[in-house]
Amino acid sequence: MSQFSDYAWMILDGTWVTVKITVVASVVAVIVALLTGVARTSKFFWIRLGPTLFVELFRGTSCYVQLFWAFFALPFIGISLTPFVASVLVLGANVGSYGSEVVRGAIAGVPRGQTEASVALNFTKLQRFRHVVFPQALVAMLPPAGNLFIDLLKLTPLTSLITMSDLTYNAMAVRQQTGSTFIALATILVGYFLMSSAIAWAIGRIERRASRGLETGPRAA
Amino acid sequence: MIWDWDFALRIIPDILRGLGTTVIATFFGSLLALAVGLVIALANRSDVTAVRRSSRGFAEFIRRTPLLVQLYFIYFVLPQAGIVLPPLLCGVIALGLHTGAYLSEVYRAGIDGVPRGQWEAARALNYQQGQTWLKIILPQAIPPMIPAIGNYIILMFKDSALLSIIAVPELMSMSRNIGNDSYRYLEPLTIAAILYLLLSGIAVLLLRIIESRSGMARLTG
Known about the structure:
Chain A: This is Ectoine/hydroxyectoine ABC transporter permease subunit EhuC. The structure holds 2 protein chains of 2 kinds. Chain A has a single domain, classed as MetI-like (MetI-like fold, Orthogonal Bundle).
């Protein structure tokens, strides 16, 4: 019985590591998505160039390849990252690159009239973006962003391959010690499903909240 | 110098052999995904509530759990049930199931996108159900699906790198082995990343061409 509680602790411990990676990498992803997404709506080629290359680089290969590259190849150019730092940077940059497209699309999707109206009202460029364009774009970003956060959670098992003791890593350790492969893997499948569902539920709530103000706006008409 | 050109050129043939396996896995994975997606999409439209619920639940579960854990499950649990499959087949099944769960949504959107009037017109013209699907619904539903299906197949191509974990001798696996043998990871991992980048880039371009063609076929046909 005490052994069972040991294994339960390993699973809980791994869950905590997975949650930590997911949360920190999500913050990185949001920063990457916003910076590159907004930069890519610029009318200046030189501002768009860097972020576009960055995004295409991260979308052109899989997260797994990037993670291995960051962990095993980067040290050859003199940059050694701890597994945790490599994990959150790569996962964040990878998902953020997909998010970049969401941000860019949402900003481009705000009707032109909104920009024109705020020009007519003598808003400065920054005011126009902060008070008119961005709040409306944000509502359009939320549903795809929710899917991306779930995608990010689903990428975290890859970090077990660069020695992070996350949920998957610990479950595989339990599997090796107990030999009960089915129970170990079924447990974490359900665990990941519950965590994904929690993210979906949370984003759904935020979505309803964020669109509240718009119900009386032009969208309701 | 950090980058060793002699070494890089020497390992390219081995890495390219891995690429062949990657392409095979992606090809059969795509075929399976197209079939699985269709079955799920049709089951989701079933008149029997139990069928509808279980197929929706299944697809949701697959979409909300990580591919790596699904791969482990197929690779480690199936043999315990007496089903021993070669690693490549396990990989193809995992890729096909995972992508198929996403494709079912693409099929659904495509079929729902055909206007109601088309179904009604087919009934008014006394078409049988098979004829209605083959001659009226699918020809209109498929062209808009092509970009989305193509994107998922490109994602699968990149995700197939995961198969290296269950010892399928594909692109990533070959590069990792070279790294393990030579203690030089920079060249093999970078070459692998460039190959993924290059091929997915070409695939995206091809997809855009097909997309514009099928769009034209729809307008004139």
